[in-house]
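Course assignment 3, question 2. Fill in each field.
Student: A.L.
Task: Predict the tertiary structure for the chain below.
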Amino acid sequence: MEVRLRSRMSLLLAGGLLLCGFCAIGLRTAVGSHAASPVVYVFPIPGANVAGPKTQITFRGVPASQIGSITVTGSVSGAHAGRVLADSDGMGGSFLPSAPFTAGELVTVSTGLSIAGATAGSFSFTIATPAGNIRGGGLPTAPAVKGEVTTYVSRPDLQTASTKVIKRPSSAAPGDIFVAPQRGPAQEGPMILGPYGGLIWFKPMPKNITATDFRVQTYQGKPALTWWQGSISGLGVGEGYGAIYNSSYHQVATVKAGNGPGADLHEFQITSQDTALITAYYPVIWNSSSVKGGSKRSVVLDAIVQEIDLPTGLVLYQWDSLDHVPVSDSHQPYPTTPNTPYDYFHVNSVQEATDGSLIVSARNTWAAYDLSHQTGAINWTLNGKHSSFTMGPNTSFAFQHDARLQANDQITIFDDGAGPPVVHKQSRALTLQLDMTNMTATLASQDQHRPGLLAEFEGSVQPLPNGDEFVGWGQQPNYTEFNARGQTVFDGRFVSNLTYRAYRFPWSGAPTTLPAVAAKVSGTKTTVYASWNGATNRTGWRILAGTRAGSLKAVAKFSSRAFESVIGIGSGEQYVAAQALDSHGQVLAISHTVKIP
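Answer field:
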């Protein structure tokens, strides 16, 4: 069965002007011959072997109105009806089948387009055999440690992971700190800390839900808070969605993966085109007999990179590791535990480079890859078993995270180094200089914590505008800022938790919620507690009190940037409220009036 999207010209042709030529002409673009038609890129790619039963068929390179006639046929399921939806940028669209495909079948797509890698506009791909859900519990809860949870009198609903500042900067560093504690027992969720490490904002996640990759990004031209949230399996992969919040801490968008699997925890990057780069994992039956201990019918995790059109939710691009990187390239031993999927690749970062290609990090192949943003072909591989680069002294890395191409052909990498097995004595923030002409990689710099830290998983490296580098140590509880000379200028840590990544960004938050206030009485002393979750321009408080709720007067005024400010007032008052003040003493907002117990 055919689904037709016709341009004005093709509609006229169908109306009887040139009926005999419809099949030859109506599928072309509005002008020009088939030979002059623009190249169209499709996903699943021609010859793909791991498409999901619920896959859409993406066409990129022409407006949806010029895609023309599409015939989709499964070798088992037969002809597929469906509909074509347009991408928001006007440069593509997707065929959404009305019914899923059948596992193991070959799907043939026929068009009149000039498709890269296809023959006369026709191409095929194979539907993989799904292997069920990824099993296993989440990350183990951290052992109990004294002082690991911080509570607040004015906000008893918040129980945050406690933090410590080990090295305080001599002056406030530019920007706040963005982390997302995990592993409990405190509430998990995105957390903003001030330049000196004090709490500014926290959003607790529901039970058994974790947040990762919390940072500031630009969405629709404005700064926004973004993070991934969902559940994490024992394999360290997630299933959830990306969240986007504005500067008032209101959710403005949700980003989900397409084609079947849920979005994974490792990456949620908004591009300059307001699309989203995300990761996902898909367990399939695969031949892993090339790996010691593997079999011809193993459960293997296909690591997926997707680009999502934010306004429509359509998939603009999909890259599947099993279509491009063999399982034999992995450094990860085949699992000995029954029913454990083989996570041979483990994608953990995706970056859009300035030339439009995608930089992908794979923990378990010890490699970073430069991918074509059109076909998915690998342009080059850094490190791993088949490096395109000659690796210079002290440049090889293992179990790495967060590979990011920087200016002047440098690449930053968090080199975990402790798989197992342990490859390095300590983890490091690594910067390599890539010579794209001679294809060599040399050491530009490395930053290491003192005393040394060794992380088996997670971690991040963020170059800052002032030349510093902000490092999250993954499995270890620290987050550290180094200057250009490799000296530590800031060092903080959780008491017992960890954060997947850590960042420093400038941020201005203006919550629409009201400040919170509470009071306690001990003998003749009344203590007032005031807080305002997320307010970045509050610098002080004015406390109002009185014997009647409707007749309060100012009894105290003081400066404080602490998340929860504490001050004593005179006895005999029965009601209290708090006014949040800016640096000029102007009132930003006032709390509800509460009765003093």
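Instructor remarks: The chain has three domains: 2-126, 149-505, 516-595. The longest helix spans residues 8-17.
Grade: pending
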